[in-house]
Structure formats: C-alpha cells, structure tokens
Amino acid sequence: MKVTAVIPTLNPNENILKVVSELKEADFGKIIVVNDGSNSDCNYIFQKLESEYGCVVLTHQKNFGKGKGIKTAMAYFLENPCENVGIITLDDDGQHTIKDVVNCANALINNTDKLILGTRNFNSPNVPFKSKCGNKITSKIFQFVYGLKISDTQTGLRAMSKDLIKIFISTVGDRFEYETNMLIDCKENNIKIKEVQIDTVYIEGNKGTHFRPLHDSYMIYKRLLKFIFSSGISFLIDILLFTLLMYFLPISSMATKIFASTVIARISSSLFNFFANKNLVFNNNNNLPKTIVKYYTLCIVQMLASSLLVSGISFLFTSSLATLWKIIVDIFLFFCSYKIQDKWVFSKKG
Question: ∠ at Cα 317 (312, 320), nearest 5°?
Fold first, then answer.
C-alpha cells in the first residue's frame, strides 16, 4: 500500500493496537502515530506501537489538539521522503473499518489531485441522535457559508497526496476546527473533493470523542457569526449616529434634518460594515476601489429590493403588517447579501 497511515491520538486504550494490527495486515508498511500529550499511563501502549508494531511514534509534551497532531505527522512525512503518494488519517478507536481505510487509500492512489473523504451515512439506525443532528446541521450550514456540498464535514478518515499536504500543513487551526479549515482551503485553492461512502461505526455511543461542543462548534461557524456580529454593530452605529445627529444638527427643517441624519448615519455605518467584512469576515486583499464599488452597488440593489418586496407583499396581503413584512424580507436579504459578498464582492478570485 503506497499510502502512509496517520493516527493522531490522546490517551488511547488498547483498541489502537488492534487498529494498527489490521493496518499491518492490510499491507500499510508505514504508520505514524502522534501522541498528543497523553497521560503517562499510556506510555506502555506507545512503547508497544514502536517496538512491536514498527510504528513511528511522534510525541507532543502537552495536548495541542487533533489538527496539530495531523500537522506534526505531515511535517515528518515531508521531511522523510519515501515512495508513498501521500497519507491517510484515521481515528484510534476502530470507528474506521480497515475495509474503508483501504478503499479511501486506493481512491487517493487513483485521484492524487483530490482530497479524499470517507463520508458516513447519518441516516443509519446506529448513529447517536446527537451525532446525527449535529453533523447534518453542520453540513447544511457549511454548504450555505462556504458553498461546498459535503455529506460529512467532520470525518476523520481523509487521504491526501504529497502535493496537497504541502498546502494543508499551513491550514489554520490546531484542534477540530482544523478539519473544517482544510475543507475551506480546498475551495480557496480549487482543490476537488472526492467522497467515498464508509460504514458508520460508533464505539459505546461515541463517548470517547474529544470534540468540545461549544468551543469547537464556534470555531466551525465563526465566519458566519462574524458576519452577523459586524452587521449588528453596523446597525447600532446607524441608530446611534442618527439619534445624535437628530439632536445636534443645526437644521430647522425637520424633513431636511431627518434626511441628512439618515444619509450621514448610513454612510458611516456602511463604511464600518465594509471594512469589518473585508478584513475580519472574508479576509480579502483585493483592489480597494473596485471592491468598495461592488459593495455599494450591492447596498443600493439590496435597499431597492427591500422596498419593492415589502411594497409588493403589502399590496398583495395587508399594509397594516408592513413592519412584519419588512423584517421577513430583510432577514431573507441578509442571507442573500452574505452569499453575494462571499461570491462576488469579496471573492478572492476577483
């Protein structure tokens, strides 16, 4: 098998010995195990892996996270050249069957330009409810936020060639967010993804997972959350400036004062929103004048669309609920705006 197996692990039990034994039987000649700061109680397991099973054991003195463990193995693979075409990462507890590992490795050998993902079927009856809902929701949100339709964004069974390793070793993140960021880098670098259907196996209800729901979910969804946050702050700036200008502007005509306050407040809040989205949400370095023209073109179109849609819905149903219609329309346009900013305004492809 011309693929190196990589197993990042934290406090493993003896299941990892069975996993490695099966890998050896399947002709995986090179196996890298990364000890990510495990307790000293596990030392005998790593000694066995090294002395009896012939694994390369790389050790972190403290726990850095799964992503860091994978990067450590990648660095070793690149620094110690061999004839293998790439690596395949898998979990240490037997959740990935040897049949699926072999299938994904063979898929890599035949598709070295693609990232290979072993994707689970979350409709299977043995999938814990928490895992089923969490993964389905994550996949849908990921598809909306990043435009990539992937069945299993959190699969640990992944295979990649040497050329792709050189890209993914620089991917941001040290923990579970690293695997999500790897998929995002596929989009940024035009790397194709091939999904290989695998068995869905959970050991004791998946209680051994090191996934931290709140922290790691935030790391996965933070781009959309940043967009929502920047929009919320922009709204507050708009309202605050409008209120202050209405109080301090020395204009006698109420209509003129409202118009001037609205324009100044909206320009100020939209400039904040533009730079926040450009630098914090989408990390965009495109030409500033061209990008800002796109942004304000979108703002004008969005404003007109809101007005026309609210007017049309009010005409068809009832104008007494105009405020409700505006809230519904603007929520819809908010998500449309995100996609347009991602695909066009702040697209790194220009």
Answer: 95
List the one residue out of 71, 150, 147 whose CA is nearest residue 118: 150
At 277-302, the pLDDT tens digits run: 999 888 888 889 999 999 999 989 98
Number of C-beta neighbours around residue 266 at 10 A? 17
Chain centroid offset of residue 119 CA: 16
Whether 26 contacts 51, CB under 8 Å: no
- Maximum alpha-carbon separation in the chain: 89
Exposure b/e, 311-334, CB count within 10 A at least 16 = b: eebbeeeeeeeeeebbeebeeebe
Instruction: Enter the pTM of the model.
Output: 0.72
Q: pLDDT tens digits for 193-217?
A: 999 999 877 655 555 454 555 555 6
Question: Alpha helix (H) ranges present in 212-253?
Answer: 213-248
Gyration radius from the chain CA atoms: 26
Q: How far, in Å, CA of 61 to CA of 63, rounded?
A: 7
3-state secondary structure of 281: helix
Per-residue pLDDT, 176: 74
Strand order in the sheet with 114-120: 56-60, 31-36, 3-9, 86-89, 158-161, 114-120, 192-198
pLDDT for res 214: 56
Describe the crossing of helices 15-25 and 98-110 by its angle, rounded to 10 degrees. 50
| Distant-in-sequence, close-in-space partners of 35: CB < 8 Å, separation ≥ 6 | 9, 42, 46, 57, 58, 59, 60
pLDDT tens string 32-78: 999 999 999 999 999 999 999 999 999 999 999 999 999 999 999 99
